[in-house]
Structures are given as structure tokens and as C-alpha cells.
Model the fold of this input.
Amino acid sequence: MKSLVNLCFISIVSCGITSLSAAESNSSNQNIYTTSSQHQHSKSKFNGCTDYGIKSRAPKFSAPPSQGFRHHSSSLLSKWFTPYHMVHDELVNPGEAVRITGKFDYDWFLHKDLEDEYIHAYIFGTGMTKWKYLGQYKTNRDGKVTVKVPGQTVGDYIIRMVVDGDHSMADGYISVRSPGRQAVLFDIDGTLTLNDAEQIGDYLGLSTATPFYYAKETIQAYRDKGYQLIFLTARPYWQTKGSRVWLRNTMQQADWHLRTNIDGEIFTSFKGHAEYKAAYIKKLQQEGINIVRVYGNASTDIKAYEMANIPKHETYILGRHAGKKDTQTVGDDYTLHYSSTVVNTPKANCKP
Done:
């Protein structure tokens, strides 16, 4: 269904999409399925801030036996094309139930949706010793499922969604935070990467997006100080997979909390970026997240942060829009900003 989207992406420098949809999926099968924890690791214990060790501590994962695809067309899709599945991250308060959306499609160009097929969902995270089965869901016409996750304690949780037909899978994350948790938010393209166009080569596998000098050290400093890291981008959902890889391999960070646009439709390619970002920031604020500092590069970033009532003295902009509308200038890279501002930022109040 998305055959035109990547054509837009390849021919245009920036193709962030900002249309949000409310597609729902049906849930069934409430039986509990768990996996063995015999290979559990003890690395990186939770310190009360962000549980970066959940992936290293996760027990060996075993999906249930495949029942095959419901449709022959899905079997051919899986056989011929590479999966580009993704799961959107969520951030909620302790004990708050949440719906987390998974999107399933195949091929880097076509992004053909996996329709009317079963998906298995699992959770593992802070304080758990086993993967827990959340149920079986069926994709809708857009290849989406919405999984209901019961409330959890403070910590971080992997939500793993597995296609029944071929066992291809995608991970998303739920971060459970108490109100008042302090966070620092970053845009990605042109803010952490040298320019917006670098996402094209990165997505096509032709090159790896180059970060600004000392951007990696800046992010790590905030992490060391205990701030919640939030990466909010107008990249369409089908760039989530590559975005997580870039954060992990190039920036040497955990690949969450990452929020990409929930849709990748061509019809909204050039509008709504500011509104999309502002709406998500407001959602985080309603959860009690205290976003103390933001970074961006575009005029739409400035507008979004302004709409979300982020103070101008904590709005840092790179590039040609730096300093506009009373925002703060980072500089040609992060070097001076790191030594003059980031190093002197006090530690976050994340630990209990």
C-alpha cells in the first residue's frame, strides 16, 4: 500500500510524514505463554533511572510453533521481501495500562502491509525473570495491531511482537516513569546528524549518517546525569528500524525512547511536523514528564517547542534557524555547548 512513499523519500531530501492514525486491532487468546529464564544475565542492574540493562538481562526467547500464514499472498510476501516491522515506544506512569502499536510490512521500497495475519506479543523488563505472553492479535488493513499492556512498576520493558507465519519480529519499549521525571529531548535529522539528507543514504544502506562532532558525548553526558533521553523525529514509521540501529551503533546509545511518525503517507509529507511533535510532547507532559531542555534545527522544531510551552532559554537550535525567536544557539557542532552548558547541567532527580 505504500509503493509511492519511498519514491517520494528517494527523490526528496526530507520526507518526514506527520499524519497520525487511530487504527485498532482485535485481541484474542488470553492464555499465558512464558519462556525459560535459564540464560538470564545479571548485567546492568536497574538504578532507579533508566533500566538500560533489560536487553542484556533478557532470557532466551522462544516463540510458539508457527501455524503458517492465513493467506498465500502473505507467504509469498514473506518469501520474496525483507521485513520492515516496527513497534512504537510508549512512556507512561506507574500502574497505567497502555496500548502499544505495532506495524508490519515488507520490502524497503514497496512497504507492502501484512494484512489479516496473526501476531504474538510478549513483554520482559524490570523485575521480571521470564518473557510473559500478552496475547494473539490480528493485523488490520494497514498491517497494524494495537496491544493492550497492563500497568507496570517503574522501569523499562521490551514489547516483542512476532509474526506467526514466519517468526519475523520487532521490538518496542515501554518506559514507566513517576511524575516529575526530568528529560532531555532531541530531534535527529539536522540536529544529531549533519543534515536532513543524510537519512536517505542511511536508509538505503549507501552510507551511515554522520553525527555532529561531540553530539554523542552530549547525549552520553545527559544519560550519565540521569536524564530520560527522548528522540522525537518526523521520520516516517518505516525508518524506525534503521533509526534504532543508528542510535545503537553510531551513537552507542540504547535505542529507546524513540518516537517516529506513526504513518508514512505521501499525502501529508510536507505539513504538520510541528503539530505532530507538539502533540507528542504535550502527551509526555500530561504523563508528568518534565522536559527540561530540547534540541532541534528546523523552524518546525522551534514552532513545536513553542506550542508545547518549552522555555526559549532551554530551546537549543543548530543550523540557519539558530537564535531565531529567542532560541539558543548550539554552534557549528556540540563542542563548545558541551563544555559550557552540558557539563554544568545539574544531575537529574531520577533516583528514588
Remarks:
- The radius of gyration is 20 Å.
- The longest helix spans residues 273-286.
